[in-house]
Amino acid sequence: MFTFRLNRYNYEIDVDEKIFIIEEFKAIWDYDKTKQKKRAKRIFLYIWVGYDISSENDYRELPMERRLEEAMNIAFGKKVVFKEVERNLIQAAVKRYIELSSTAEERLLATVQEHIDEQNKILMNIKSIDENGELVPGYSKKLEATLKNIKELILRKKELEKVIKNDEGKIRGDKQESYLERGDLSVKSKFGRK
After folding, report:
1. Could you read off the pLDDT of 34-79 as tens digits, one per residue?
2. Cα–Cα dist 32/43, whole Å
3. Domain spans of the chain?
4. Which residues of the chain fall short of a pLDDT of 70?
5. In CA terms, which of 51, 86, 155, 178 is 20 to 30 Å from 94?
6. What are the phi and psi torsion angles at 57 (to 5°)?
7. Alpha helices in the chain (DSSP H)
8. Of the candidates 26, 19, 20, which has an alpha carbon nearest to the alpha carbon of residue 4?
């Protein structure tokens, strides 16, 4: 699993040369023509704050819209309008980052969270009284349906979180950890050495 590493001392992404193997990240790095590559590093920070779902990211629980606002604020200090080329580079890098940094279950969990956020917006916009002070027809049905959707989504979210939590520490591909990985060096090997 791939993730950027945040340096909490200077709140920058530590750029490891290995990320340039990934074409989408190298494209952002190469697009920044400055020597210090501050713009590229800020874009990487924006991607990390906005899209990383690891426990290292304090913003992962925020609704997506709010998280992206925070990402913009943290990375750039203000709202920045990206050039079309930058937008395309960022979109490609975000897509790749999500693919590399999360499991299928985690991506599904993020999708469920987006649906919860959408339902919350709908809930906030349901009006019970119109401009004339009259009760809006169908208000209770809309409210009931929206609350039912939110409840179902929250149940799915909890189920997915449980699956993800149970899978933490497991090695992908149904392999078992080696004795070395488990830290059990006292086990006798099949060659008779201890």
Report:
1. 999 999 999 999 999 998 877 788 888 888 889 999 999 999 988 8
2. 10
3. 1-102, 103-169
4. 1-3, 167-194
5. 155
6. -90, 110
7. 23-31, 38-51, 64-76, 84-101, 104-125, 139-167, 179-182
8. 19
